Amino acid sequence: MAIVFNDPGLSPGFQAINESLGVLRDVIGKRSEQKRQAQQQQKGMEVMSNWASTYDTSMSPMDNISTLTEALKNSGVSSKIAMPLVQDMVKKNMSQQGDIFGAQQIFGQQQSPSPADDRIDISGQQGQSQMSRFGEEQLVQLAANKNPIVSGQAKAEMEKRKLDQQKFESDRKYHTQFATKQEEKVASLREAIPKKESALRNARQAIESGQVGILSQANLSEITGIEALQSARGSQLVTAGKENLLSNIGRMSAKGQNIWMEQRIASMFAGIGKTAASNLTFNEMLEAEVAMDKAYMKKFDELAADDESLYGYQRKDLDRRARRAVEHVDELTFDRSAYRIQRLDESEKSNKELNKMVGKKVPSGTYLTMEMAARFINKYGSEEKAADIAKKLGYTIPNGEELQLYMLSPSEFLKKVESL
């Protein structure tokens, strides 16, 4: 900047000379800076020429560029001069196949040296990561590029993809041999569950009607063999039994399908002439089985979809992961079934028999039903004392939230299980 003296004591002629000298100093300073930059530019070109003649093909392209930038820095070339030189070199070398990375993508704004840091840092992984966005045909073209940076990165990406595909195919083949068996098992559940649900609904309706017991018209038809005497509810229960039989046989192999096995399956279902408590006990156990199977099947499908999305195939441990994920549902369902069967057992006993049970030891884990709890309170006076004694006798006492679940109807409980 020109220094001008504005001393009023100086003559106008002297002030004019002083101003002219200031302008001259500015011109000389600018020319000196331009000369210095030209010298650095020339020095930079010499460094780049030496670098090109000693290009190390054993190093990655980006590492070679890092070597260049370090050489420019050591030669005293400022980053202000060096950066445009390197960028221009990259652009020219890549122009044969188009600017595949773009100067900003290699030398982004984050790479620009700050006033406090005169270094130029170029990661050798940046160029390689850019290759992942090209298709196979583009990579083939880039692999033939005369520029060693471009061709090296393209070939490395092609080899990586080849190895990745080989590993994928190997993993998929290994896991699929297990996943196929798992899928077959779930497919049989998918087919059997709707039939079993229908059978159990019909059976419960027939049993709760009270028209299929030992003294019923339905049982008279069974005893005499006269089908004309069969009642509507009796026919409903018989049909439900056949539906249940078909749903189970469908899950068996051809070798396992014989008359003896059919008889065994039929004996594990509600039947005409049995007590209501007996028939409902069969139903409770089978309904619990359905609830657990549905929870497992839902979780299996969810995890299978996740595997397909993440890996491209179902993994061999899918069954184990699904089973583990629904363990809490299985436990809840089993506890509900145990509580409800305990109530059915007590429903067959007289008041006198039930009163005798109060204060006596029971197998550990036996559920204390609401009806039995009332008898304990009636005998021991307070809920707290009754609960303490019941626990010591081996009873398990459900809390309020558990009781609400245990008292839900089968259809309501299934809906609840689906949300867990």
User: Helix proportion of residues, in percent?
Assistant: over 70%
Catalogue the unreliable spans: 1-5, 95-125
Compute the number of helices. Answer: 18
Radius of gyration: 43 Å
- End-to-end distance: 79 Å
Helix-strand makeup class: mainly alpha
Mean pLDDT: 78
Number of strands: 2
Name the shape in a single word.
elongated
Strand arrangement within the widest β-sheet reads 1-2
The description of the largest β-sheet is: 2 strands, parallel
In terms of DSSP E residues, the strand content is under 5%
What string gives the helices and strands in order? HHHHHHHHHHHHHHEHHEHH
Description:
- With 420 residues, the chain is mainly α.
- The N terminus is likely disordered.
- A two-stranded parallel ribbon has the order 1-2.
- Helices cover 71% and strands 1% of the residues.
- Among the domains are: 94 residues, no CATH class; 67 residues, no CATH class.
- The radius of gyration is 43 Å and the shape is elongated.
- The protein is built from 18 helices and two strands.
Summary?
With 420 residues, the chain is an all-alpha fold.
What are the salient characteristics of this protein?
2 strands; mainly alpha; two-stranded parallel sheet; single chain; 420 residues; 18 helices; disordered N terminus; 71% helix; elongated; 1% strand
